[in-house]
Write a structure and sequence with these properties.
Elements: H1 5-18, H2 23-35, H3 52-65, E1 73-76, E2 85-86, H4 104-116, E3 120-125, E4 135-143, H5 147-170, H6 174-182
Antiparallel strand pairs: 1-4, 2-4, 3-4
Length: 191
């Protein structure tokens, strides 16, 4: 939030140090540093998986606590996230179990992010396919360097992608079921 591009470069450095074996991520960060010019408030996008988001959130929070960046860091996520949308003409088209348009999932996602401590949560529709044809849940959480923020970051950045695993496991996707087992994601309806 400082507006200083050096803060973004500090977060880039932390990403590269903590995920050196993620070739696509490393390639993206280096390419973005070289080719993507900041517009307005400097920002960076990077896609991280389940567990990685919570890890990085805690690291960003520590950067703020240690004064390595000049201001709190806002963490958001793309609306393509797999547990936050019901869009039968795009992201959730042809779900294995026919749950393409089931709006319960983004609403559950929004509620979990709210009780988890997200800084703001939004529910909206349209999402590029037209008003009334999809529903999405958005969230943002702020890493402000406090212990309380660290706890909220851990919860929100675990719950949020976890809903994607739960939703797809519930729909019968083997990859999601396996991910739930590997990552110890507790799903009440899954044995």
């Amino acid at each position: 939030l400082s507006g200083d591009p050096n803060d973004i470069y500090e977060t880039d450095k932390a990403i590269l140090e903590n995920f050196p074996n993620d070739k696509a991520l490393v390639r993206w960060i280096k390419l973005a540093q070289e080719k993507v010019e900041f517009q307005g408030l400097p920002a960076r996008i990077c896609w991280l998986g389940y567990g990685e988001r919570a890890k990085m959130g805690k690291i960003f929070n520590q950067l703020v606590a240690d004064g390595k960046v000049k201001a709190p860091i806002v963490i958001g996520r793309d609306h393509l996230d797999c547990g936050s949308v019901a869009s039968p003409y795009r992201e959730t088209e042809t779900m294995k179990d026919g749950s393409d348009a089931i709006a319960d999932w983004p609403i559950l996602n929004a509620m979990l992010n709210s009780i988890g401590g997200a800084s703001w949560v939004s529910v909206h529709h349209g999402g590029g396919v037209g008003i009334g044809k999809s529903i999405h849940a958005g969230m943002v959480i702020v890493a402000d360097g406090t212990k309380e923020a660290e706890e909220r970051l851990e919860r929100v950045l675990t719950y949020d992608p976890g809903m994607g695993i739960v939703r797809h496991a519930d729909a019968g996707y083997e990859r999601a079921i396996n991910n739930a087992k590997i990552n110890n994601v507790k799903i009440p309806m899954m044995k």
